[in-house]
Amino acid sequence: MNKSVGIICEYNPFHFGHRYHIAEAKKLSGSDTAVCIMSGSMVQRGECAIFDKWCRAKDAIDGGADLVVELPAYYALQSAENFAYGAVRILNDMGVTDSICFGSELGDISMAEQCAELAAHPSDEYKEALGAKLDSGSGYPTACEYALRQCIPSLPKNFFSPNNILGMCYIGAIKKLSSPMKVYTVKRNNDYHSGESADQYKSASAIRGMIKSGDDYMQYAPDYSDRNIHLLKNAESYILGFFRNVSSDSLCDIKGYEEGLANLIIKTAAKSTTVEALFEACVSKRYTLHRIKRFCLCCMLGIRGEHLPEYVRILAAGNKGTEIIRKIKKCSKLSVVTKTSDYKGGAMFEMDIAATDLAFLCSEDVSKRICGMDFLRSPVITKLRCPPPL
Fold it and tell me: What is the C-alpha separation between 369 and 365, in angstroms, rounded?
């Protein structure tokens, strides 16, 4: 019986390290196919993705994935825990993946499993340490790291990197859902934020920087020289204007809302002349840069309320991917969306459409700052015999 591995990703942008991860994920899990659930127009760091979701999905298919589906903006713009829960839940509810595989700095899941178990069933020591750190004014992620280190002194110094944290959250989500999916990890070959690398791979963060600055990146990623770039600063006037004309009370049901945070952003927007200055001025011990940016995007996109996944949005598929789509339609209760106008979806789907409209408003090419791309673009179906060699 054919097996399929799930990969939770953003591919912002897709690079040769991602191609390696897809190949290794199939090998480790003994899978014939890889299903990627990818952040769409917005990414978890609180930005629009550098390229549109259809381009990035095609890059993944060209790099060895078999099917790419969209992680709704509702989940993509939340904390690591909620981001992971949404992605794992959709993979589980699709009913076609036997496992998930994530990249990590350690290349081992035992520590992540220990942390996930403790977070799910906190001891008195953990609760006390967490509460003390929160009372000192620290944000929740910092307080969690402190409490986990107090309870598990053997945690490596570099454990709390973004990928290890997400891995811990994936495992926690699988436990919460009682999902039968198994977990595998592939060791990363570079630091998450670093521009340095031990071999031929660089991080997506480093490659984004190279693309923006015009440096040569093509030994690390495909040629993106003809791509339209999306950057939040291109919608600077809209973003500043939005927060200069909104009240804190009107944002109280937005995901991630805190009265202090909302008031801080509104007050700061009134005297900021750039969106970068707005974000940086709001950073504090309590509020991280990414949390501030996520909340701002949630406000502008109207991301509010409690929702559960009702659909699977197809972004791209290869030959085997079309077979997987047929299997999802047969064994899952989730609606399979291939054409936006055919799906009479609810609030979560409307948030995805709004996210795409905002992303295109952020285009470097002003002629492409248009609305409604979700209604104009179709899934990318690629007839690819096999991925290029590693």
Answer: 7
| pTM for the structure as a whole | 0.92
Whether 263 has a pLDDT exceeding 70, the answer reads yes
Q: Is 245 exposed, middle or buried (0-12, 13-18, 19+ CB in 10 A)?
A: exposed
Whether a cis peptide bond, with omega within 30° of 0, leads into 13 is: yes
Q: Label residue 158 exposed, middle or buried (CB < 10 Å: 0-12, 13-18, 19+).
A: exposed
What's the CA gap between 213 and 207, in Å, rounded? 10
Report how far residue 346's alpha carbon sits from residue 141's, in angstroms, rounded to the nearest whole number. 31
Distance from chain centroid for Cα 364: 22
Length of the chain: 390
One-letter-per-residue 3-state SS of the chain: CCCEEEEEECCCCCCHHHHHHHHHHHHHHCCCEEEEEEECCEECCCEECCCCHHHHHHHHHHCCCCEEEEECHHHHCCCHHHHHHHHHHHHHHHCCCCEEEEEECCCCCHHHHHHHHHHHCCCHHHHHHHHHHHHCCCCHHHHHHHHHHHHCCCCCCCCCCHHHHHHHHHHHHHHHHCCCCEEEEEECCCCCCCCCCCCCCCCHHHHHHHHHHCCCCCCCCCCCCCCCCECHHHHHHHHHHHHHCCCCHHHCCECCCCHHHHHHHHHHHCCCCCHHHHHHHHCCCCCCHHHHHHHHHHHHHCCECCCCCCEEEEEEECHHHHHHHHHHHHHCCCEEECCHHHCCCCHHHHHHHHHHHHHHHCECCHHHCCCCHHHHCCCEECCCCCCCCC
**Which tokens belong to 139?**
């944000």
Question: Which tokens belong to 366?
Answer: 């002003």
Q: CA of 253: how far to CAs of 68, 77, 288, 299, in Å?
A: 31, 15, 20, 9
Instruction: Judge whether 94 and 35 are in contact, CB under 8 Å.
Output: yes
pLDDT in tens, 329-356: 999 999 999 999 999 889 999 999 999 9
Tell me: the pLDDT tens digits for 12-68? 999 999 999 999 999 999 999 999 999 999 999 999 999 999 999 999 999 999 999
